[in-house]
Structure formats: C-alpha cells, structure tokens
C-alpha cells in the first residue's frame, strides 16, 4: 500500500507513476518475469530508493514475504526497495510512519491488518485507513494452522474443542498479539472455549 497524496497540499506526479510501476512489477512476478511483460513496465518511478515499511519484527511472515517479494521488484525497477521493520502497537506504528511520509510514492506499507482489522479494535489511530492509504496489490494469501503440543491428545480440529469443554476454565492459547490474524482466527473458531493468559480475552459462554 502506498501513501495517498490526495490530502496533501501539492501531491507529486510521481505518485501515480509509482503506483503504476508497482502494479506492473507485481504483474511481472505473477507472470513469472517474462521478457514481454518486462518490456511493458513503466520506468518513470522510482527515482530513488523506496522504503518498504513492515510493521512487525524481522523473521515473521510479513517480513519474509516482503524480502522475497521486493527483491525481484528492485531488480526490475532499478532502485533498491529497502525493508524497514517498524514494529509495535499491533502494526499501527509502522502504518503511521507511512501515513506521515511525504506523498511522493517512495514509502510503501507491506501490511493489511492495520487497515482492515485494527480500526475496528482501536478507535484512535495516527492515520485514517481509507483516507491515508491506497491499496496497490495483494501479495499473498496464507493458511493459518492451529497447532498443539506433540504430546496433546488433540489430533484434529475437534480435539481442542473437546479438551476445552472438558477442562475447567477452558484452554490457554497464544497468538502473535491482539488484533493479529492468528488472534482473530482463533477467536472466530474457539472464542467460547479458549482463554488468553493475562485476561486479554475471556470466555464467552
């Protein structure tokens, strides 16, 4: 996602070129980087290194995907795409940094949770998702597995549910943090059965 220049006093013309170039680069990746597709890629942008803000720590899914994805984009477009990890506050710190960046198309947010989930959880944010950002392309879709210890009696999805019903107080669970995809997936399926340590989420029925 890129910073939306519509609210700036004097939006740069490079923003539109940047979005088109990034879209073309994404198309190149999907097309397997064919020579024909490469010849059609816009070249007016970027004119300098691009900040790719990943609002999570290094080593997670978003970070790894960004590094895999933007390395060939950098080769195709002729400028470095520098991964910048700005973690904290469930992704809002990194998203806020991009929202406040100069609207010239050289700051990119690699995230979706901060625009789709976080606004529903935190009413006060340092950015307005629909005002400050414009989506460019979808990078990946990722499965969200449910894992249990190898010694657990649960061997399928029904297993943790049965254990949760039988255990006094339910089961303890862990996620990447409040508002994360893992957090929401778990609560969608087992909100009545599992609890989080620290009282962040209580059993509902």
What does the model show?
The strands form three sheets. The protein has a three-stranded parallel sheet. Strands 1-5 form a two-stranded antiparallel sheet. It has a two-stranded parallel sheet with strand order 6-7. The chain has nine helices and seven strands. α1 packs across α3. It is elongated, with a radius of gyration of 20 Å. The chain has helices spanning 14-30, 35-39, 61-77, 92-99, 113-116, 118-121, 129-132, 158-166, 181-190, and strands at residues 2-3, 50-54, 81-85, 107-109, 133-134, 171-173, 194-196.
CATH homologous superfamily of the largest domain, by name? Bordetella uptake gene, domain 1
Number of helices: 9
Number of strands: 7
Strand content: 5-15%
Shape: elongated
Mean pLDDT: 75
**CATH top-level class of the largest domain:** Alpha Beta
Head-to-tail CA distance between termini: 39 Å
Structural class of the helices, strands and pairings?
alpha/beta
The helix/strand series, from N terminus to C terminus, equals EHHEHEHEHHHEHEHE
Taking the sheet with the most strands, its summary is: 3 strands, parallel
Radius of gyration: 20 Å
Give, in spatial order, the strands making up the sheet with the most strands: 3-2-4
Helix content: 25-40%
* CATH architecture descriptor text of the largest domain: 3-Layer(aba) Sandwich
């Amino acid at each position: 996602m890129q910073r939306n220049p519509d609210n700036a006093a004097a939006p740069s013309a490079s923003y539109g070129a940047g979005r088109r170039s990034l879209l073309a680069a994404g198309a190149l990746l999907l097309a397997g980087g064919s020579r024909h597709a490469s010849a059609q890629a816009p070249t007016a942008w970027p004119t300098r290194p691009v900040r790719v803000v990943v609002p999570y720590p290094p080593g997670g899914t978003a970070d790894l995907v960004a590094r895999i994805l933007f390395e060939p984009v950098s080769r195709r477009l002729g400028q470095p795409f520098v991964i910048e990890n700005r973690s904290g506050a469930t992704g809002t710190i990194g998203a806020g940094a991009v929202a406040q960046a100069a609207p010239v198309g050289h700051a990119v947010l690699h995230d979706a949770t901060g625009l789709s989930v976080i606004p529903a959880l935190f009413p006060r944010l340092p950015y307005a998702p629909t005002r400050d950002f414009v989506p460019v392309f979808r990078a990946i879709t990722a499965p969200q597995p449910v894992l249990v210890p190898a010694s657990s009696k649960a061997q399928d999805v029904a297993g943790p549910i049965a254990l949760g019903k039988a255990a006094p107080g339910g089961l303890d669970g862990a996620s990447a943090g409040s508002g994360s995809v893992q957090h929401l997936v778990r609560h969608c399926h087992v909100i009545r059965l599992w609890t989080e340590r620290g009282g962040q989420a209580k059993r509902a029925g």
